[in-house]
Amino acid sequence: MNNNLNFFGNNLKKIRKRRKLNQSELANKMKILCDKYPKLNTYGISPVNASSINRWENGENFPGINNVILLALVLKVNINDFIPKSLIFDKNILKEEKLNFSEEEFELLIKLLNKLKISIKELEMN
Q1: How far apart are the C-alpha atoms of 32 and 71, rounded to whole Å?
Q2: How far apart are CA 118 and CA 16, in angstroms?
Q3: Residue 113 reports pLDDT greater than 80
Q4: What's the pLDDT tens digit per position in 62-105?
Q5: Which residues are CB-contacts of 58 (< 8 A; sequence separation ≥ 6)?
Q6: SS3 97
Q7: Under 8 Å between Cβ of 45 and 115
Q8: Distance CA 119, CA 39 (A)
């Protein structure tokens, strides 16, 4: 298993359990957020099922950056909590992840995510 996948999966599992969620509940919270903010789909952010979360936690594969962002929003953590510190400062990796978006799309996504941070508390109440 790749060390980066292992790091991501272990951290995702720890954070999920700390939030007292099972994999299905986490998948459902991701779906609720996507349903509440349909514009997320225009950025390639879409809900997943429990089996996807299971594969991520077991290091079988890695979610796209879009779903990492969605996980961070739902779990109320910093995206860096999922990334090994050895990768955080590697600008080439960050640039590769950003290639999925044009500069304009990337800026719009950041603005949208900042607006979503304000509304995340509503999910806790539901």
Answers
A1: 12
A2: 21
A3: no
A4: 888 788 888 988 998 888 787 766 554 444 444 455 445 567 76
A5: 9
A6: helix
A7: no
A8: 14
